[in-house]
Design goal:
This protein is mainly α and 84 residues long. It has one domain. The protein has four helices and no strands. The longest helix is centred in the middle third of the chain and has 23 residues, at 38-60. It is globular. InterPro entries: COX23 (IPR051040), Cys_alpha_HP_mot_SF (IPR009069). Residues 61-84 are annotated as: Disordered. Belongs to the CHCHD7 family.
Amino acid sequence: MSRHAKKLKDHDINPCVAETDATTKCMSDNNYNKDMCTDYFLKYKNCRKFWHEIMMQRKRNGVKPEMPTAEERKKILESMGKPY
């Protein structure tokens, strides 16, 4: 597995692993017909947007690391409900 592929599967780096996997599975199951997977694409897009906003806020506040760890993200989601 390439270094890039490993990063995509690392829960501490990629907050949207589950959404990525669900989108890929949908595409595979539906002969790569994007129209059949619109909901999955939207969930992925909303996930990326949500965590990007969190990351930018942490960066503005001087919090390191800018992207919360998988453990921190789990706590954030539990406190908010799943916002995407």
